Each structure stands twice: as C-alpha cells, then as structure tokens.
C-alpha cells in the first residue's frame, strides 16, 4: 500500500467529478481524482448531450403514477423493470411512487427548477474556458406528440414550466414539419424549447474536461475506491494499492455512490435508471436538433458524424448485463420514425445515478463537511455538472 496525502480527494471521474475537480483546482486547491476507468467513460459518455435546462419535470409525476403498473410490467415500455430486480428495487419504487404524488412532484419540480436556472449559461462559460465551444449547438430542442390526446395531456407539464419561466413554444403539426422537414408528420404537435443547447459529442467533452483538469494540476489515480472513513479532522480513502489521506472527500461515483454514503452513516435511496443508446454513423443527419418522440422516451440526437438514439429507463440494478430486448425495442421505435435506419454502428448501456424524487444529493455528510456528496443527478447530470461544481465549492468555502 502506498500512502498519499491531498487536500481534496474526489471519488469518481464522471462529468460531476471532473467539473468539480477543475473548479476546485482553479480555486487553488490540491485535488486528486480516483477513477478506475477512463475519466468520463460512464454515464457521462453516452448520454443524449442535451443541456436540458427546461427539464424541470421529475421522472415521477401523477401521470406516470396513474400508468405505473402498465409501464413497469410491459418489458417494452419506456419505463420498465426487470423482473429479477424487483425485490431489490422495491424500497426505491415505493419511494418513487410517493414522490410522484401531486404535492410531492410539484415540490420536486421546484427544487429541480432552482438547480437548472443557470445551467445553460454555466456550460457556455465552462465550454469556452476548456476550449469545447465548437461542440455546443444552439438550435433548441423539440418534443413530439404523435396524437392530439398526447399533446393535450402535456398541458400540466407545460403549465408548470411556464410557472418557472421556461421558454417554450407549442407547435402545430405544420410548424413541426417546417422546423424539422425530414420528420414524418405528427398528428398531435410539438413543444419547442428555443433556448436549449446541446453537445454534439459528450464523450469528446469528457476528454477535454479531463485533459484540462490534468493540465491545471489535478492528479488522477487509476484505482477503485473501496472504502471511506473519517480519520482525525479529515478522511482516509482506501483505493488499492493506495491509501489516500485527505482533508475532504467528494463522493461523485455516480450510480455507485450509495455504498460510500451508507458506510459513512448517511444511507440514501440511490439506485440506477439504466438507459441505452444506438448510434448510426452518417454524414447527412435527418434532424437539426435533439428531437424527443415523447411516447417512446428517447431522443434522436444529432452528434458529430452520427445519429445517436439515447434514452428509455430500465430499472434493473447496477450489475445486470445488457438487455438485448431493450436495444431491439429502441431500434424498432426509432425505425417507426426513420424507417431507413439500418443496423446500428454501435450500442451502449449507461447507468443513470437516480434518486426516487429526481433531485440530486449535493450536500455535506450529516457528520460534517470532510465528506461532501455530489451524486444522484439522474437524467440531468450533464446539464447540472458546472452548477454542482459551484455548489461543492461553496460548501467547502463556507
Ligand atoms: C441514455 C442516457 C441519456 C442521458 N441524457 C442526458 C442528457 O441529455 N442531458 C443530461 O444532462 N443528462 C443526461 N443523462 C444523465 C447523465 O449522463 C448523468 O446524470 C451523468 O452522466 C452522471 O454523471 P456522474 O459523474 O454522476 O456519473 P458517471 O458519469 O457514471 O461517473 C461516475 C464515475 O465514478 C466511477 N466510479 C464508480 N465507482 C467508483 C469507485 N468505487 N471508485 C472510484 N470511482 C468509481 C465510475 O467509473 C464513473 O466514471 C443521460 C443518461 C443516460 C444513461
């Protein structure tokens, strides 16, 4: 075992760990990131790339609650559960259904809206700082509603977003067609978020973030953290073959963060909403901006040299293998819209770190700020990374 010493040790080098490392280092702190894989190669690599500052609606809503049984037990639905995962996920699901009740969902939306308020500006600034501005696109984002009934059913969410001042425009089927002419006609309509921005290659952004952090002096340790314990005024992290003594540990291990919080004495109901992507290499992309057919729960994402189809939720735990059926359904539903899609060039499974209320955990441990939590960002972790880094910095400065 080698013993190392640092001011701040960050467990996990996903987008949350990387942005936090960069920020704390820029403030003059000594930072180590502990990461067993290539930095940014977890959920942060394969997402839809949207800086979704409009996404204030939690996953659990009264509408989801109304259909929860048919959703969960239809293996092909956009929000399905693997049978084998049911016993282990039961406590999370119970909490999820509670959080989907009208009073809870409104409160959760309020908390999420507060976090999201400056997300786009913060990313524009950070992208400029690290030299990733050319990977940002600013053409808005489009939700599609296939039927008038679905369009009408979106009214409650539209109203809630209006309440929080989110820029959104309801579009007729003709207006959808003029915005994205290569989409097949929709009967319901669209919802356009004109100010939304997106990355055209989240994986490349992660590489740039990691390189910027290294250049700034952040030390990366390629190891798996296996335990965290308080030691004197600080903490001791086991990450074989290293033991790292730090003044502060930041737990940013994405969907794997729960065991550290439990070990420290702050049990949390963190689990994972597994999401998939398919990619099709192509130079002539059929869409200009991220487009979400809301009934299928995924985005068509215009990426550099390829179309990515990313999304859906599978409740299935951290260790189950890829479920080929989920990829087949994703492909079949994508082909309903673009029938000419051939075989995917590549496929991917990612683990969203998800709390039942869709509100991330960004706070010091109950026993003090020698341990700070920064995980549970669910569907909006890419969006919230710079904001999270700012919050962690404020916690440490307080
Ligand atoms: C299909 C899909 C689409 C999405 N689309 C969007 C989107 O459009 N916009 C958006 O904002 N968000 C989106 N998300 C969510 C977003 O990707 C995640 O919220 C975000 O990447 C979480 O970042 P993270 O750093 O917490 O986790 P991760 O990126 O998973 O990073 C956690 C890191 O911790 C490391 N780690 C784990 N255990 C240990 C350990 N014991 N010791 C050390 N390190 C450890 C892992 O190796 C990993 O690199 C999407 C997610 C999915 C799956």
Describe the structure.
With 398 residues, this protein is α/β, with parallel strands linked by helices. The chain has a single domain (2-66, 102-397), classed as FAD/NAD(P)-binding domain (3-Layer(bba) Sandwich). 36% of the residues lie in helices and 28% in strands. It contains 14 helices and 20 strands. It has helices spanning 15-26, 43-46, 62-66, 68-72, 86-99, 102-116, 119-130, 148-153, 155-163, 173-179, 202-216, 258-264, 324-337, 381-397; strands at 2-11, 31-34, 50-51, 79-81, 136-137, 141-145, 169-171, 189-193, 197-199, 219-221, 227-231, 234-239, 242-251, 271-281, 291-293, 298-303, 306-315, 346-354, 361-365, 368-375. Strands 1, 2, 10, 11, 12, 13, 19 and 20 form an eight-stranded mixed beta sheet that branches. Strands 4, 14, 16, 17 and 18 form a five-stranded mixed beta sheet that branches. It has a four-stranded mixed beta sheet with strand order 7-8-6-15. Helix 7 crosses helix 14 (381-397). It is globular. The two termini are 34 Å apart. Bound molecules: flavin-adenine dinucleotide. The site of flavin-adenine dinucleotide (FAD) has 41 residues, from helix 1, helix 2, strand 14, strand 17 and strand 18.
Name some characteristics of this structure.
alpha/beta, 8-stranded mixed beta sheet, 5-stranded mixed beta sheet, 14 helices, 20 strands, globular, binds flavin-adenine dinucleotide
